[in-house]
Amino acid sequence: MNANTDNKDPIATPNHTPQLQAFRDIVESRRSVRRFTDTPIPDDVLADCLRLAMLAPNSSNLQPWEFYVIDDADNRKRAVKNCMNQNAAKTSARLIAIVARTDVWHDHAKQVLREYPDQPVPKKVKDYYNKVVTMDFLRGPANVVSAAKWGATQVVRRVKGPIKSPYYTFEDTKNWATNNTALAAENLMLALRAHGFDSCAMGGFDEPAMKRLLGLGDDQHIIMMIGAGERADNGVYNTQFRFDQKQFVHYV
């Protein structure tokens, strides 16, 4: 992978990779840091990290995520307790709940059309968000629409071949929202590292208690808590290693 240094265009191409080494440095230096210093994360830095998080790829640009930055002293104390008093939560400069939403797809589809950058909005875009997205997610009373979608999908597969499976159940929609939100969480952690800060993604927390603390409803799901701050000297507990990629990568 050779970088063509004569090319001043910052956009990477197969023959011009000006950001490759910087990206390697970010990814390879990112660690799950469990102890942080007292150095604060400035508001403008956090805002930029969250902006970069929301540039993550996501299905149909429906953006089913929320980020709860827990700064209030009392709320933070309770949140740390809900995180089992982990050092990554106790010592973090900022503590953030990463939330996936299963109830915003319809409103966000309408918002996409309102804020679409190319005007007038092309008909195929209108049809997609008004019809395809609705059919994809709609379940109907007692899941009656889901049952009809399932039957129609089976017929199409037999007659025409492969077809994308629509979302039949609440769990389907939850998986969709969770997958998309996890992509944004990864962007957030890499953005923090690029700004010189670190993070720890925590799955060990009391979700019902944390949802009560944040006032979340049944359609809001905390997929992880992220503690963030400056890495302390004793913040990384173990030497980094991964299994050989040959164990996981398959060419078929």
Automatic annotation (TrEMBL):
Q: Which GO terms describe its molecular function?
A: oxidoreductase activity
- Name the Gene3D superfamilies for this protein: NADH Oxidase
Residue span(s) of domain Nitroreductase = 28-229
Keyword list, A-Z: Oxidoreductase
Q: Which InterPro entries match?
A: Nitroreductase (IPR029479), Nitroreductase-like (IPR000415)
Instruction: Name the domain of life this protein comes from.
Output: Bacteria
Q: Which PANTHER family match?
A: NAD(P)H NITROREDUCTASE YDGI-RELATED (PTHR43673), NADH DEHYDROGENASE_NAD(P)H NITROREDUCTASE XCC3605-RELATED (PTHR43673:SF10)
Report the family membership.
Belongs to the nitroreductase family.
Name of the protein in question: Nitroreductase family protein
- Provenance organism: Psychrobacter nivimaris
Upper lineage is: Bacteria, Pseudomonadati, Pseudomonadota, Gammaproteobacteria, Moraxellales
